[in-house]
Amino acid sequence: MVAAVLVAAFAALNFVAYRQAYAMTHFVAGGSRTAQAENLSLGQKLKTLLYGVDLPRPRTTLSPAILGPACRAFTFAGGNGERLGAWYCPVTPESPLVILFHGYGDEKTGTLNEARVFLELGLSVLLVDFRGSGDSSESYTTVGFDEAEDVAAAVRYAKASLPHSKLVLYGISMGAAAELRAVHSCGVQPDAIIAEAVFDRMLATVRHRFELMGLPSFPGAALLVFWGGRQLGFNAFGNNPVEYAASVRCPILFLHGAADPRARLAEARLVYDAVPGRKWFKEFAGVGHAAIVMHSPLQWKETVSQFLKDAHVEGTMPAPASHP
Questions:
Q1: Is 277 helix (H, G, I), strand (E, B) or coil?
Q2: Domain segments of the chain: what residues?
Q3: Which residues neighbour 255 within 8 Å (Cβ) at sequence distance 6 or greater?
Q4: What is the pLDDT of residues 210-248, one digit of tens each?
Q5: Between the CA atoms of 291, 296, 302 and 308, what dihedral angle is there, to the nearest 10 degrees?
Q6: What is the dihedral of CA 209, 138, 151, 263, to 10 degrees?
Q7: Contact at 8 Å (CB) between 224 and 201?
């Protein structure tokens, strides 16, 4: 009798985890996104636990003209038949190019403010939609694992069609994980990397989401990671930036909020510690899992500007117009 109850409970737990994993990795056509776990009421938490989160497909509603008249939108081919959306804003052909990668459940305009700063510093920018987001094809996410192939595809396209003096990768959260995996698994070799709000291990960041809902993370977090990977055909337990970081050979800057509850500061420092070469780490007091440039714009710009100088990847401003 006891064994039957335990088996039934385990089956029920797996059923809930399966539904949760599917909801967190597959975008739906419409509706409103479920609020952050710490902002949900008890009733909302119970509903989310039973039925999963609502994750509408991220849409791009703005025009690239918001970044400047020279900016344009286009799509390019991914590595496995996907179409990836992008905005390109050039400064000069001699300027370095920064390719920006957004976070989970977002699209390319999620890096709009960072792109503005890079343009102010004299660097050209390419804002990319991961698969399933914005103007890209597909309707799912692997939280950085397969998205590494999107990073690699963006780098290939940039080198072939958008020649610039040097190449910098910027990614936030999932975008940071994807760019590190692209270096580790796809042979991407940029001139510099900026990784913001990076998590160390997929399992750890899923555990933190359970904790934010006031729920025990064992065994639910592991089941969620297991089923998410099984549904999309990859090993989600192997999605670990702390392991990818050992392959980084270029200068890299880590930016992290000291109050981040989803990708904790100590975990980000483990990723930093795993990098064998030139590296910098900057923490920002009072910042959670959010775009740091919105919280501390001047400090963010100064930190990034100094890093680019130290990494010898400085911007090139266009020459002033001559007057007769």
A1: coil
A2: 1-56+203-237, 64-201+239-310
A3: 194, 195, 196, 197, 282, 284, 292, 300, 303, 304
A4: 999 888 999 999 999 999 999 999 999 999 999 999 999
A5: -10
A6: 0
A7: no
Nearest to 134 by CA among 161, 88, 102, 158: 102
Convert the pLDDT of each residue in 270-321 to its tens digit.
999 999 999 999 999 999 999 999 999 999 999 999 999 999 998 876 544 4
| Tokens coding 2 | 């006891």
Q: What's the token pair of residue 199?
A: 């998590």
Return d(Cα 174, Cα 227) in angstroms, integer. Answer: 19
149-206: pLDDT as tens digits: 999 999 999 999 998 999 999 999 999 999 999 999 999 999 999 999 999 999 999 9
Which amino acid does the sequence have at 197? A
List pLDDT tens digits, range 64-87: 999 999 999 999 999 899 999 999
- For β-strands 192-196 and 252-257, DSSP reports them as parallel
- Give, to the nearest 10 degrees, the angle between helix 2-25 and helix 42-51: 90
The CATH number corresponding to 64-201+239-310 among 3.40.50.1820, 1.10.10.10, 3.30.300.30, 3.40.50.300 equals 3.40.50.1820
**Residue 281 is encoded by which pair of tokens?**
């780490």
Q: Classify residue 111 by its DSSP letter.
A: G
Mean pLDDT of the chain: 92
* pTM, full prediction: 0.94
Cα separation, 284 vs 259, whole angstroms: 8
Residues 6+ apart with CB under 8 A from 122: 91, 95, 314, 315, 316, 317
Is the peptide bond preceding residue 216 cis, with omega within 30 degrees of 0?
no
CA angle 256, 259, 261 (to 5 degrees): 95
